[in-house]
Design a protein that fits this description.
- Three copies of one chain form a homotrimer.
- Chain A is α+β, with helices and mostly antiparallel strands.
- Chain A is 28% helix and 23% strand.
- The first copy, chain A, has one domain: RutC-like (60s Ribosomal Protein L30, Chain: A), CATH 3.30.1330.
- In chain A, the strands form two sheets. Chain A has a five-stranded mixed sheet, covered by helices on one side. A two-stranded antiparallel sheet of chain A has the order 3-4.
- In chain A, α2 packs parallel to α3.
């Protein structure tokens, strides 16, 4: 079964690729390494979740926000490679969760991203992870994901990567 | 026109390379990847800006601080490679902006770094970016940049990289 | 003298490899790059230090916490490669120190990690570094280290890396 087969059932959920918030690229490739700009829980150009987990948002909403940010990561990679078939595997996921002072369970929230990656990509979605619990993130969003990935060595169809 | 030609008009602004604040290297190379230690708005060994954007500093000062931190990144790369001609391109810029609780416009401040990189390096200066808004950064500095870059594959003049 | 000889005297201190806190891998390899998940001051499965430096913890305790987190990094790399002989060198150490509002000396605390790496690995332990001073980290731990490393090009004994 191909990678995209695994991904097929999630594809309808894939959000449109969000625009960059400044003077930068969504993805840059160096050799087979893929550097993805920070991704947020954005859907159709709108901030779907706002606030800190443990205050304005529940842990379940945080989990859903992490999942949505992960869908944006996949949308960006698909837009850059043409299809997720070109993705060899994920390498590192840095997960930042805006956290209320008395809440501290970021790993559970970040499993919203990790579970989605593994569900969508199987073994290729397995990754290292780092968790952070800042008091706030840009635009008061609850989750930011910074992903580094690997492209298949023979993948030459670079459609949108500068 | 060579890369350094683009850079020539900015060169007089290039600050002296700051010293490391501890037991670490300013730059390490692995293959063609270049890892640069966190850079700050330092000029001639002094902290040029102190405080949080939205409190002690205005947004315009934040932008200028990000630009100065970016100049330090270029100064470090030039010191390591001998000349910026050896730089293939920037890959990732992680931008941390010390932010007052009620201020949240880090992307605008970080464009101070991104605009400088693109002005100095042209297409080679284009990069992915991540934005963070911590309550504080080391030494109460307003901006920290963590840059990953790519060296030209045939660039052998490694002058100062361990 | 081999790498492991340098490391020999520190080896009795090496903690057991901690379990992942969620759905992710401790280490992933891409080519010769090694991505290590965030490591904390954990010993025998227990959080050895809790709290912020400058409040619940002294600077000396922060230094010790950074050192213990660094030992966990080495434990993870050894578990993945079989022996630290397979490690070419460290590349980047991102150091996050949970900091009280009126305390700001993260570089001194992070030297607890850097000094350990250099003592254990010699020149191969030298690295670039970035310092961050968030108000809190996952599980109220005082230090988190995110390490990127390089494997020897001919190192094929991949025992536990997915």
């Amino acid at each position: 079964m191909s990678l995209d087969s695994h991904f097929a059932e999630l594809e309808p959920e894939l959000p449109p690729v969000p625009m960059s918030a400044g003077n930068y690229e969504p993805i840059v490739r160096a050799g087979n390494l893929l550097f993805v700009s920070g991704q947020f829980p954005i859907e159709n150009g709108a901030f779907r979740y706002i606030g800190r987990v443990g205050a304005e948002l529940s842990e379940a909403e945080g989990y859903a926000a992490a999942r949505l940010a992960a869908l944006n990561v996949l949308a960006q990679i698909r837009a850059a490679l043409g299809t997720l078939e070109g993705l060899e595997r994920l390498l590192r996921v840095e997960g930042h969760v805006a956290s209320a002072p008395d809440w501290n369970n970021a790993p559970k929230v970040l499993d919203g991203a990790s579970d989605l990656f593994v569900a969508a990509l199987g073994g290729r979605g397995r990754h290292t992870r780092t968790a952070f619990t800042p008091a706030s993130l840009p635009f008061h969003l609850p989750v930011e994901l910074v992903v580094t990935a690997l492209v298949k060595p023979d993948w030459t169809a670079q459609i949108a990567i500068p």
